[in-house]
């Protein structure tokens, strides 16, 4: 049987035209840096050789994606961030890959793996980075954007957050306006930048009103339900228990609610509680939770768009963006109870 004719290649066409393979490739891809005469010759020879471009290789599964990485198990806060990033990614035609950090090692090899998987950028949420980790990403030419970082490395890193100080201030001022003076703060990790800002807002409001922060009234832990329950129990068991508690996030606030109920306290008749974030659980609690709305979906969207701008080589207006917070008053706060 006669052998089937061999398919023409770019090298075949290039040899016939007396040009390089790169020049033929430029013509095929419509590049403008080829002279009209050369373009005409190459196009004619492509037809003469009946050149058919090979079927495109399947792109790696991670192509045109951005990695959205969390440092712990997903919760209501994470869901809001994800929804905002996914919506912005859909508008831009970019996929979002959600991952949870495993271990603490982040090296050059780790950064190269992200690039090899087709990631355009990395968005790290409430994570803690060493100065070497952003450097590893920079060497791999992979842009990094942080959301509510626990710490900011000494190297300049782009980050997205909210007006945490103003949020802490407004939450505490709301409780003070209801007549409360014994107000406790139960927050997250002491070193977390967002927690520090909320705590400073709380202290500023208390100081401005002349309301003392009693010993044991400031507690720290993680932004988790069980931490809120444990710290809430400790605060409510103090000899002079607070009449109101400002919790550093909604999940902590729900834990405080459970600690209060276990002690027979009614909310808000006996104890007022304010949260932070305004996630879905704030509306599902009984009573619904007064909280500071942190624009989490908008933060996810801004982070995604910022990451894509950096990936395209564009400059950003600011390396740190803060979106406005807003107090949302619901049923978990009331005037101070009449008790000693």
Structure in a nutshell:
InterPro entries: HTH_LacI, LacI/GalR-like_sensor, Lambda_DNA-bd_dom_sf, Peripla_BP_I. It contains twelve helices and twelve strands. The protein has 340 residues and is an alpha/beta fold.
Class by alpha and beta content: alpha/beta
Helix share of residues? 40-55%
Q: For the residues shown, what is the average pLDDT? A: 87
**Strands in their spatial order, largest beta sheet:** 2-1-3-4-5-11
Main beta sheet strand tally, sense and closure: 6 strands, parallel
Q: How far is the first residue's CA from the last residue's CA?
A: 105 Å
CATH class of the largest domain: Alpha Beta
* Computed CA radius of gyration, to the nearest angstrom: 28 Å
Order of helices and strands: HHHEHEHEHEEHEHEHEHEHEHEE
Using DSSP, what is the number of strands? 12
- Number of helices in the DSSP assignment: 12
Describe the structure.
Helix content is 41%, strand content 16%. The protein is built from twelve helices and twelve strands. By secondary structure, the chain is an alpha/beta fold. It is elongated. It has a six-stranded parallel sheet with strand order 2-1-3-4-5-11, sandwiched between helices. It has a six-stranded mixed sheet with strand order 7-6-8-9-10-12, with helices on both faces. Helix 11 links the parallel strand 9 and strand 10 (290-293). The longest helix is centred in the first third of the chain and has 17 residues, at 76-92. It folds into three domains: 1-56, lambda repressor-like DNA-binding domains (434 Repressor (Amino-terminal Domain)), CATH 1.10.260.40; 65-163 and 296-322, 3-Layer(aba) Sandwich (Rossmann fold); 164-295, Rossmann fold. This is LacI family transcriptional regulator.
């Amino acid at each position: 049987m006669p052998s089937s004719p061999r398919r023409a290649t770019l090298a075949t066409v290039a040899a016939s035209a007396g040009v390089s393979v790169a020049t033929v490739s430029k013509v095929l891809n419509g590049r403008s840096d080829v002279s009209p005469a050369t373009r005409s010759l190459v196009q004619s020879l492509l037809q003469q050789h009946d050149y058919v471009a090979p079927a495109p290789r399947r792109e790696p599964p991670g192509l045109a994606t951005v990695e959205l990485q969390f440092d712990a198990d997903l919760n209501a806060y994470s869901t809001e961030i994800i929804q905002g990033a996914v919506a912005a990614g859909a508008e831009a035609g970019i996929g979002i890959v959600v991952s949870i950090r495993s271990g603490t090692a982040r090296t050059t090899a780790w950064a190269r793996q992200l690039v090899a998987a087709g990631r355009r950028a990395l968005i790290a949420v409430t994570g803690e980075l060493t100065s070497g980790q952003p450097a590893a990403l920079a060497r791999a030419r992979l842009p990094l954007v942080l959301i509510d970082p626990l710490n900011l490395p000494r190297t300049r890193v782009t980050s997205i957050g909210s007006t945490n100080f103003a949020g802490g201030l407004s939450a505490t001022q709301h409780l003070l306006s209801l007549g409360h003076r014994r107000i406790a703060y139960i927050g997250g990790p002491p070193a977390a930048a967002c927690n520090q800002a909320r705590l400073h807002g709380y202290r500023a409001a208390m100081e401005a009103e002349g309301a003392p922060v009693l010993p044991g009234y400031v507690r720290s832990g993680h932004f988790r339900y069980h931490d809120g329950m444990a710290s809430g129990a400790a605060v409510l068991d103090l000899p002079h228990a607070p009449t109101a508690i400002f919790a550093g996030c909604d999940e902590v606030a729900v834990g405080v609610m459970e600690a209060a109920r276990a002690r027979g306290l009614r909310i808000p008749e006996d104890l007022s509680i304010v949260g932070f974030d305004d996630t879905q659980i704030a509306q599902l609690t009984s009573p619904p939770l007064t909280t500071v709305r942190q624009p989490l979906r908008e933060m996810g969207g801004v982070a995604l768009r910022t990451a894509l701008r950096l990936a395209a080589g564009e400059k950003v207006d600011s390396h740190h963006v803060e979106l406005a917070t807003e107090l949302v008053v619901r049923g978990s706060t009331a005037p101070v109870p009449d008790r000693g």
